[in-house]
Specification:
Blueprint lengths: L2 H4 L3 H27 L5 H24 L3 H6 L4 H5 L4 H21 L2
Length: 110
C-alpha cells in the first residue's frame, strides 16, 4: 500500500532515511563544488577533517557531562563515568567550533 507499510520495522525506515540523507547531502556537495570550484587545498582539507573529528569527540563528551551537574560532581574522579556517554548535539557543536577555529587559524597562516 504505502511505502511506510512496506517498511514495517523502525530500523529499516531509519536506515532508509539515513542512507537517503547521506546520498542527497553528498550530491548537493558535489554540485556546489562543481559550480563554485574547490577552494580548499588537500593539506587544509585533512586538517579540517581532523578538527571536525576531534571537536566532535570532545564536544559530545563535554555536553554529556553537563546534562546533570550533580552527578558529574559526585563522579568526577570516576574514569568510567567520565568516558561513558555522548550526545549528538555536543558532537555537532564541538565539531562546528573546532572547524571554524581551524579555518580561522589556517587563514592567518597564509
Amino acid at each position: 500500500m504505502t511505502l511506510l507499510l512496506h517498511f514495517s520495522y523502525a530500523g529499516e525506515t531509519h536506515f532508509l532515511f539515513e542512507t537517503l540523507s547521506y546520498f542527497i547531502g553528498f550530491r548537493i556537495y558535489l554540485r556546489l563544488r562543481t559550480r563554485r570550484g574547490d577552494v580548499v587545498t588537500d593539506e587544509h582539507r585533512w586538517g579540517l577533517i581532523a578538527a571536525a573529528l576531534a571537536g566532535a569527540g570532545v564536544g559530545s563528551k563535554i555536553l554529556n557531562w553537563f546534562v546533570d551537574p550533580q552527578i558529574l560532581f559526585r563522579n568526577w574522579s570516576n574514569p568510567y563515568f567520565l568516558m561513558s556517554g555522548k550526545t549528538v548535539a555536543g558532537g555537532l557543536i564541538g565539531g562546528l567550533f573546532a572547524v571554524e577555529w581551524t579555518k580561522r587559524m589556517l587563514a592567518t597562516t597564509r
